[in-house]
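Everyone, carefully examine this protein record:
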Amino acid sequence: MTLENINLTGHFLIAMPALNDPYFSKSVTFICTHSEDGAMGVVINRPTDLTYDALFEKINLELNNTELAQKPVLYGGPVQPDRGFVLHEPDGIEWDSSITIAENTALTTSKDILEAVAQGTGPEKMLLTLGYAGWTPGQLEQEIAQNSWLSVQPKDISSLHDILYNTQHEKKLDATMALLGINFGMLSDEAGHA
């Protein structure tokens, strides 16, 4: 399989040490769509100073869930940083703007999901990000070939959901690397050559 034919939807991307872009250094991005039209994902390990409570207040919703109130909203990427993206377990509800990524994982961008969260009827497991990471056709493949990213496929739904929803943000890089049986310090910033 050539690099042009890969589909990384549902994979994690780990920023390699050579990638010194401040948006992505030491980041873990979850790829939501990847096709010949390009790729889109959300960074899952960059908490912002904005809490759920503060964000909901800004969009005129009252969040009555004290467990979520002080949880940090994540920096999802540099594209549309003022727009919310909710990565979640599908719960049988049809949201206005939602895509299924992989078995038991979806991304919703419509306000109706936030209204449900405010009322306590939203998804049980979710990540809320502002912005996303996007790549034009062939760009992600080129960046992988240049040793900017390491692609990691979750072993199963359980390992995917554990990293997305149960692992502390500062431990997601190590947890994703552990799927490969290595740690981040073992990575080189040089591409391998035969």
Observations:
- The mean pLDDT is 88.
- The first strand starts at residue 12 and ends at 15.
- The two ends are 18 Å apart (CA to CA).
- Helices lie at 52-58, 66-69, 111-119, 139-145, 157-166, 172-178.
